[in-house]
Amino acid sequence: MSSVEVDLLGGCLCGGVRYRVQGLPNSPCFCHCNTCRKAHGVSPVTWFTISVTGLTVLNTASLKERASSAEAVRSFCSECGTNLFFKRLALDEIDIATGTLDDANSDNLPVSVIPVKNIHTESRCNKLMPNILAEVV
Length: 137
Ligand SMILES: [Zn+2]
Ligand SMILES: [Zn+2]
Hints:
It is built from 1 helix and 10 strands, in the order βββαβββββββ. Strand 6 (63-67) and strand 7 form a beta hairpin. The chain is mainly beta. The model has no long low-confidence stretch (mean pLDDT 94). It binds zinc ion (2 copies). One zinc ion binds next to loops.
């Protein structure tokens, strides 16, 4: 189902960070963890994973990294604050925040980046969930 290679562009809100992601994504998910919630200001955060060789950062001027634990760093734009990447130091792969893809809202979004699981549901914001797919007026 998710064995579709991608070639996608993305970036931060201000355009200071631009990237291209190519290859075969894996583990597309909704993450409900508290660090994603705080880092992005929303929950869940949508992610997919790609080999580090599949990510090309085209414009790094405002890209900053911050350790979010002893094992991982998060990358963000120091100008506009957009959180973009999550990397476990021990792994040769990196997580891309799906919402930073230019075409995240396209009906043609590749199936291989569409979430297939929820993780860290122990910290899910249950009170924020019921209307997520409902029309709220
Ligand atoms: Zn920016
Ligand atoms: Zn998370």
